Amino acid sequence: MMSIINTSDVEITTFFLVGMPGLEYAHIWISIPICSMYIFAILGNCTILLVIKTEPSLHEPMYYFLSMLAMSDMGLSFSSLPTMWRIFLFNAPEISANACFAQEFFIHGFAAVESSVLLIMSFDRFLAIHSPLRYRSILTPIRVVKIGIVISLKSVLLVLPFPFTLRSLKYCNKSQLSHSYCLHQDVMKLACSDNRIDVIYGFFGVLWVMVDFMLIAVSYFLILKTVLGIASRKEQLKALNTCVSHICAVIIFYLPIINLSIVHRFVRHVSPLFNVLMANVLLLVPPMMNPIVYCVKTRQIRVRVVAKLCQKQM
């Protein structure tokens, strides 16, 4: 579990995650809503993917991007699932350093994919409203596939240094993490060696995600400008209504991630329970809520889902 590096320091090779601080006695009960949220998230996103795959009428750019969002949501769920279940179901908070570095790579990677997909979806809504006649000729299936590949490569390259820079650090005195899964900014604080490279690159990673958010804001400024140029009030509302699901997805994803980043970097004294709750909201709520939002607010998805459910009952 530990290896001696010299007479005064002991290098830690196992970290300890946390459940709900102060509520350890209730972990088995807390596991019920947590497991339910994972099940809803996985089933909901699988349903979205199945409906889009099997319905030819949904083979359009908007729904292809929604499929990418569903896949990134499932990736986030499966990345944190092992440690969350171990902590809350089996009271086993230990995780090896290498497993921790691997987990934070996948969590940050899928979060970066989701951020990029939300950005592309905002441009998709702008194109659909601004140039409806050229929309399909601009976003052809081949271009959508290329965009998906670029998003994936960009996200992998962005987070690829994380596990290697963390692995190069020494961990001597502290082994207690502050979340139920591994995050880059959480692990690097435990290092007893110089972690300036991790701090700088971690800030660059957060900045990159914030650039996505700012570009989404620019897209909606252009959408609003285009909508205000439409003469008919009814057409204005119809155009804006196509953006409601995406706006909800953006708020659900970015609000907890911005709060968590601010807490980690600028807030000195904060309740450990608040830290854990915010981190769990980040990975549990978006994958669960996105399918619900898109099913409720997108008529085409809702009608197909209801039709599939009725078909199974018959």
Automatic annotation (TrEMBL):
This is Olfactory receptor. Belongs to the G-protein coupled receptor 1 family. The chain crosses the membrane at residues 26-51, 63-85, 105-123, 144-164, 199-223, 244-267, 273-296. Putative odorant or sperm cell receptor. CDD domains: 7tmA_OR51-like. It is a multi-pass membrane protein. GO terms for cellular component: plasma membrane. One of its GO terms (molecular function) is G protein-coupled receptor activity.
